[in-house]
Amino acid sequence: MPLNASVPIEASELSRLLPHGGAMCLLHSVDDWDTGQIQCTARSHRAGDNPLRHAGRLDGHVAIEYAGQAMAIHGSLLQRDRLNSEGGAFVPSAGYLAGVNQCEVYCEDLSRVGEDLEICCRQLLSDTNGHLYGFEVKAAGRLLASGRATVILNPAQRHDQGMAFQGE
Q1: DSSP strand pairing (142-153 vs 117-127)
Q2: Nearest Cα to 37, choosing from 114, 166, 124, 157?
């Protein structure tokens, strides 16, 4: 059951859910989410000033960063909703991308993809230490990258069960 599916979350709010902003906030919007998944849209892969471009291109493996930001926003949204229901103040918790496995990349240069990126992350496992997500990055329904990512929560903030990635 979606918690906020009827209200897309735009880029201006997304930057408050991540520890970095400006051009490094790669996602354009959250289109749907609930306790087990999040679906986002990105357009920044086409931007000439994308901070992850190198030598005029955006390597297909950067799709992992797009998925990582969606996971971080998912954790922040879960944490924010829980704290709102408890009357607490929201500050995103820190999470760290500890590993990626079963990763397949089917696109060499994301900057050449003309359509918006569709990022879908599903929370497969979750406990007080971290989360395991499955992710897919698509454009116009065509799979560009997929895999699994392990997120470890900052030990000082593990009780929050939410996260926003740091160190990027």
Answers
A1: unpaired
A2: 124
Interval 21-73: pLDDT, tens = 788 999 999 999 999 999 999 999 999 999 999 999 999 999 999 999 999 99
* 47 Cβ contact list (under 8 Å, min separation 6): 23
Beta-carbon contacts of residue 155 (< 8 Å; ≥ 6 apart) = none
CB 17 within 8 A of CB 29: no
Secondary structure (H, E, C), the chain? CCCCCCCCEEHHHHCCCCCCCHHHCCEEEEEEEECCEEEEEECHHHCCCCCCCECCECEHHHHHHHHHHHHHHHHHHHHHHHHHHHCCCCCCCEEEEEEEEEEEECCCEHHHCCCCEEEEEEEEEEECCEEEEEEEEEECCEEEEEEEEEEEECHHHHHHCCCEECCC
The whole-angstrom separation of Cα 46 and Cα 59 is 12
Give the CA radius of gyration of the chain: 15
**CA dist., res. 114 & res. 116, Å (int):** 7
Topology of the domain comprising 9-165: Thiol Ester Dehydrase; Chain A (3.10.129)
pTM of the model: 0.87
